[in-house]
Fold:
Amino acid sequence: MLELLLLLAIFIVVVVAVYLYARSRTVAEAKRLFEEWRSREAQLIEERARNMAVSMLEEWKQKELKSVEEMLRNQFEAQAQALASELAKKMFEEWRATELENAKKALEESIKRDYEAKFQQWVQESEKRIREDAVQRSLNTILGRVGEELAPLIIFTNYGIAPKDLRHIGSPVDYVAFRGYSSEKKEVDEIVFIEVKTGRSSALSDVERSVRRAVESGRVRFVVINVREELERLQASIVQQARATAQEQPLLQQAVSMPQHSSSEQRSPTPT
Structure:
């Protein structure tokens, strides 16, 4: 019985030893296999990551290249469009200036021809009228000068006023006549205001009509001015004003000094 137990114990020990040995070999093999798998998976993952990175880099590069190409194309098109617009504008301005200059010259030539033709026609149609108008103007000028020279004679013939009684003032009327001044008596009988008209119309101006109304309504008077008396009166007025000013100055100085005296009195104490 003891031997059997001993054999059983030895058998159990052997089984346990074999189990432990097999287990250690299995763990080591599993560990080795795991390391190999991990290494392969790491290589695969690294390869996949590298391939993915390369693919993403290629895709990004393609996108960036397309974006840069599109941007450059847009910039080039914008610059080309601006250049073309500027060139077209410049060509249009040159063309317009040329066309405007040509049109201006053609219009000027056409207007010149038309106006020359019309002017020649007007000259031919109006030559007679121009000559008659020039003759009439010359005649009016001559008649005006003759009338001015003959005015004293006409006044003497029609109104009996001697030429020596006339005084020419020019404005607002031509003459002021002192009838009888040149006679032996040296006595003026009448004063006459005379306006001479040499044209077709005898219409008076506003000022001339106002002179006539003043004379007809009797608003005429005779004034004597003595310059010496006026100067003496002015001198007396100036002296009177100077005296009044001299009298006012002491009163003004007194009025100014009174507040100063009153303030000094208020500041100084009264002795007891």
Q: What stands out?
A: The radius of gyration is 67 Å. The chain is about 75% helix and 5% strand.
